[in-house]
Design goal:
Elements: E1 2-4, E2 11-13, H1 25-36
Antiparallel strand pairs: 1-2
Bound molecules: zinc ion.
Zinc ion binds next to loops.
Keywords: Metal-binding, Zinc
GO molecular function, one term: zinc ion binding
Pfam families: YacG
C-alpha cells in the first residue's frame, strides 16, 4: 500500500513507514511546523502504534 505524501506529493510506502502519512521525517516536521506556528499541541502522537486492517479497493 502506498500513500502520497501531503507535503511533497511523492508516493511512499504506508507500511513500515514511521513518518506516515509523510514520506520522511523531513516532511513530517515540515507539516508539524505548518501548524505548530499557530498552536502547538501535538505530543507523542507518533508514539501510538495503529494497526491498520482495512484494505481499500
Ligand atoms: Zn514528502
Amino acid at each position: 500500500m502506498k500513500v502520497r505524501c501531503p507535503i511533497c506529493g511523492i508516493s511512499c510506502l504506508w507500511q513500515d513507514n514511521p513518518w506516515r502519512p509523510f514520506c520522511s521525517e523531513r516532511c513530517r516536521l515540515l507539516d508539524l511546523g505548518n501548524w505548530a506556528a499557530g498552536d502547538y499541541r501535538i505530543a507523542g502522537a507518533a508514539a501510538s502504534p495503529i494497526e491498520e486492517e482495512e484494505e481499500e479497493p
